[in-house]
Design brief:
- By secondary structure, the protein is α+β, with helices and mostly antiparallel strands.
- It has three domains: about 150 residues, Helix Hairpins, CATH 1.10.287; about 180 residues, no CATH class; about 180 residues, no CATH class.
- Strands 1, 12, 13 and 17 form a four-stranded antiparallel beta sheet that branches. A three-stranded antiparallel beta sheet has the order 3-7-8. The chain has a three-stranded mixed beta sheet with strand order 5-4-6.
- Helix 1 packs parallel to helix 5, helix 8 crosses helix 10 and helix 13 crosses helix 14.
- The longest helix has about 80 residues.
- The radius of gyration is 41 Å and the shape is elongated.
Amino acid sequence: MKQHILRLFFLISLCLFFFFAQTSFSEDQIDTLGKQIDELTRALNMSINATRPLESELSRLQNQITGIKGRVSAIEQDIFVKRRNIEEGYTSLDKQTAILERAIRDFYIKSYYSSPFLIFISASSASEITRLLTYQKKATEQDKAIITNIALTIADLETKKKNLELEQTRLTAFKKNLDEQSDKLDKVVTGAKAYQANLSSQIAQLSAQQQQLISQRQSGLNIPRSAGTGAPACIDDRTIDPGFSPRIAFFTYGVPNRVGMNQYGAFGRARTGQDYSTILHAYYNFDEVKDVDANIQIRVDGHGTYSLEDYVKRIYEVPNSWGDNGGMEALKAQAIAARSYALAYTNNGSGSICDSQNCQVFQDGEKGGNWNSAVEATRGKAMTQGDQVIKAWFSSTHGGYIFSSSEIGWNSTSWTKHAIDTPSGGAGGFGELQNNAYDKDSPWFYCDWGARGQYNKTAWLKSEEIADIANVILFARADSSTKDHFYQTDRPHPYGGEVWNADRVQSELKNRGITPFTSASDVSISDVDFSGGRTNRVTISGNGKTESFSGSEFKDWFNLRAPANIQIVGPLYNVEKR
């Protein structure tokens, strides 16, 4: 066992050695960010590769230690029983001490004062002599037996006591050694996992330029933040044939911003009979819906200044038609959220607010109809927490989830929450989510975003294209200094560099001793956090090998490498294959 632990320490130490040693060697070779990412990635991969073959051995050792500890407990119980028996033996011996002393005295007297000669001359007849001699013999034998038994008891107790003391000494030493080895094993396992987790958290998969490029690509998709926008819905390509097979596409649940009220979710809740208060409490943490000054002036960039109520009547965030289809309470909830957001954003009118989806959609003319009715029905009402109006973020479609602000990288706020937007408050799988989510009827609930004209305007990808994305990730892991070559192959390099096509990536991987994928025979979502609303792992098989990638890692490189404007736009996504 000790050898296994030493072996683990050696492997982890070797990883650390290479990590720190290589850092100094590459100081003048690449820029600081690239160097850190490269070395952290290599160290992480070395640590994972070092510990992966030993995971079963570690489990076996831990089970063995558990079994040994169980046997130690049994030994301790046995020692306890022995100690108790010895103590009871000594207690009994104290009572027998008087018997022993009397028996020795009687034996001495009978041995020296009851000689056969004295019996012979004192007896009146031969039969009496025989009787007295027989009695003397039995009495003497009885005394000898008493003395012998007590003596043996004393010797046995002393031996048992000595053996028990030795056994306790050995057990104490053994337990100490066992605890030390167990602690070392625990530290090795915990340390290795913590080391890997720490490295993973430090590794920036993409550079700042690459992240900016992805943001620009997603902006070009015109992802709707507002349910009332005129932006076209994404197309569900599951029934559209691109002209090739097999074909693979990645479908995202909802739009990226899942903080605060889910507008389509509010509509779904209203149609089940929930009132605006219940709806708002589902999406925000707040103390009360409070009356505020309806005459506060709101200044809108490029439009002028309006009273709070006149401003809210000009908000175009949700369709008027919802009011005619059982969604009037959703419109009321939206009016209160819009009023709250405007007050918090402008600090009760001290600042100005924009007119686009970056704030909330505003137009010069009143929206009228059901919307105006909802505004009038909730006149002057806003959500407050601790007497402060909350900044009530919202977006069109959350894909069955509600995120707190900190979960998407914003500052942590007390009025945002994390929840699953279903009647049960849970989701056990993709099917349950699609059947039960309150926003399931949104045209943006389950989408494969982007399209290519040459393939019937779909986002389907070929297995070779998925293999190429997997190869790019493998290459970035092995040598992140080359990652600036891994942009879209159907467009020029965005910064004037050289883009490596699929063949070049495969060739370079082979040169580094890494077997590349040439096609993807199977792609699966192998791990999903349905409580958190995130895809954790994507697994790709092909060419007799299988590789797994974290959900965020795969999404980042997919969004950088995928052709045209095809993107995965949120943390929870699924794969469709035809």
